[in-house]
Design brief:
The chain is mainly beta. Strands 1, 2, 3, 4, 5, 6, 7, 8, 9 and 10 form a ten-stranded mixed sheet that branches. It contains two helices and ten strands. The two termini are 33 Å apart.
Length: 170
């Protein structure tokens, strides 16, 4: 009886929809738009120039929207604040709202994730909830920032990387 039960569990597990993960890793946007200048410099390889917003230099209400060529499952975003002398001259994002795929049946009209970042030079990881569906567009709204009012020239981020995977249903 135990063997039959074990066989049924194994058969049920193996006979479900088969999925294959392809292209797992760093996903490069095909484009971006938003407030400030240089959003495309956030993800270009070896750019290290980053994005800057001089009008809202204290990181209040700045937004960036990223577009991807194919839909994929986003696992996390790696964010790096400016380094060297730009670290002290820039306000760093503190409170973020990340807007994912739209869904009219949801309370806020789609998938939303809020994050509080640290005022550090090391990379920070923003983990996306597992229940988010595939996406091909993502908006990051910067609500507030870390700053010393007398010495910042701009709100800025040096690099962003999007990590995830595509799934093929067989």
């Amino acid at each position: 009886m135990k063997k039959l039960f074990l066989f049924l569990i194994l058969f049920t597990f193996c006979s479900g929809n088969s999925e294959e993960i392809i292209n797992e890793g760093y996903v490069v946007p095909k484009g971006c738009e938003g407030d400030g200048i240089g959003c495309e410099m956030l993800y270009k390889e070896n750019a290290n120039i980053g994005w800057q917003h001089k009008e809202f230099k204290y990181c209040e209400e700045s937004s960036l929207t990223f577009y991807f060529e194919n839909k994929f499952n986003l696992e996390f975003i790696s964010l790096l604040n400016f380094q060297d002398n730009k670290f002290n001259r820039s306000a760093k994002p503190k409170e973020l709202i990340i807007y994912g795929p739209l869904d009219e049946d949801m309370v806020y009209g789609g998938y939303v994730h809020t994050v509080t970042l640290e005022d550090i030079k090391e990379s920070q990881y923003i983990y996306i909830p597992e229940d988010w569906p595939e996406l091909d567009e993502l908006t990051i709204l910067i609500q507030s920032g870390y700053f010393t009012p007398t010495n910042v020239d701009f709100c800025g981020i040096q690099n962003l990387q999007f990590w995830g995977y595509q799934v093929i249903n067989e």
